[in-house]
Description:
95 residues, mainly alpha, 5 helices, 4 strands
Amino acid sequence: MLSVACVLEISIKHGAGRLNPDHNPAMLIAELLEEGVLPLDVKVEHALRLASLPLLHGDPFDRILIAQALTEGHTLVTADPQILAYDVPAIDARK
């Protein structure tokens, strides 16, 4: 699943010039969707779950991903040690 929060973050970073300008976010997302990756909208339940999370991570997008994983029963894949500090199913991509 591809969280809409990821799409938002990619779009914001691209617009701010913080990602490679040669990579088009719209094309990347379109390719993922064409490959069968399903989008995951940010729902009210996710936002409410976010309020109950301890403030171990300051990035609101990452906190939304954590809330989505907990609410939906998904596993995150991340190399971010701050996300791994939460009690959320996760695969450590650093290994």
